[in-house]
Amino acid sequence: MVEYYTDGSLKPSTPTTMGKQDPNLVYTDMGAAFCVNNEPALSAQANISLWPSSIRSELVAIFLALLTGPMNAKIKIYTDSQSAIYMINNQYNKSGRKLLKQSNSLILLKIDILLQEKKMDLVLVKVKGHSGDVMNEIVDDLAKNTSNSRCYFNNRFNYSNRTIRFFPIFKQIPIEYNLRKFIKTLMNTRVAAEWSMLKTNGHEIPIAWNITWNLIHRYKGFNCISVKKHWHLIFIIKLFAKLLPIGATLIQRKPNIYKDFVCPRYNDNKEEDIYHFIECDANKDLWPIIKNRMQDDVIHIIQKWSNMEKNTPKAIREKLKQILGSQYDNNKFIDFCLLALEAKINTNLSKVSKQLFGFLESKNILFLASLLDSFIIHFKELIWLPRCNATIAWEKDRNIERKDKLNKSEYMDRYLKFCHQQGKQSRQDKHSAKKNDLPISQKDQTVVLDDIIFELDTVQSENSMNENFILSKCYRMGKKAHDQMCLLISNNWWYSWAYKKTKNIIDNVIADLIIT
Ligand SMILES: [Zn+2]
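Above are the sequence and the zinc ion SMILES. Below is the predicted complex in structure-token form.
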């Protein structure tokens, strides 16, 4: 009978310099150690990397201990990880398919093979961590201080058995994660990388995407429990995708009907773009109300999570001014609104609020998502709905009916033709329209879906230039997705543009990057 104590450690790191991470580096420290019972000198420790989790380090520690165990022996291992015990005890008679479905599959497989081939009889015993067990303290210390050790446990697929003859790898790294989920993540990341490089996302201001994801998640899927919430989600998505039928969009979509559509609520005869909602005189008295309501909505959230000493509503209002500005016509508030009308929040603002109220990263995201939600709710109620009623009245005056607003296929034909033939010209038109100070929409109805415009009738040299442009874009996109996958495997980090499953936001460190 041989008795061991094993322990693992995991020190997750937060990026210190945002936006400067090297995707090829491992920032997370993991260590594993074991020690023979009552023989502190008979011990070993090792550094581990990739797929960071505390259970992984515990499993590696157990595996290392088993490597030293004699054949046909009874082995007793003391560990403080209940989940490691559970996982090892549930390995017997699992099919290869089932084995590959779990996390840390390769290390579990190796433990299983080792036990079978050495014919060892393993008993796992749970010890309470930090309960004064001397041996446990020793091994705990060893696992936490592996940085001085030059030993490195490299988990490669170097031996197999009948159940598993091959192992999936990504860039030479065994995929020790549910394979189906991994492939799904890989595909989603590529799609997200492509999306993040669209022109419409090319903000000069860095966006804290995770706040937007959190807001959308609140009303999505199983969280969408009422028709009201459903419509609210649609409204948020329309804001996000800039699809709200505001005047500028209506003129673009249906030029013949809406060619003389101007702000329907105030006699200012101005084109209704998104900025007009802020400057329109009809909203002059409404913005202060929205601002006040937003403050009222978030005060209790701040009181709950903030570490402020004096958290009276008055003190909080004073601090909120640094985020929302002191007045509704203050630049701070206008900047907030302009981004919030796209369901987005500036990264700098999120830094300010984190510092201002002393929030944890995860709470800060939840707080700002609530602030954004509050803004959208009140904007919709006080400004958007009256505006829609005014638009309906405007349409009624001109006898515009529902059937006039529906899409006809001829529009699609025209649109497609336009895309192919006039992509180039439209850009020139846009340019000259700007020069002449004419609204673009009056000059020509331009719809540009993305940056890549195929120009069919151009000369050869220009064609190959386009090809190069597309290829380089493809390459940059692949690189971006690849970097994200590396950061995920080695550090469990997500760039916020890629991170859409905000449900687990608290378990993951999110590295914010400026989108390039
Ligand atoms: Zn107006």
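The pocket of zinc ion is lined by residues 263, 265-266, 268, 270, 276, 280, 282 (CB under 6 Å).
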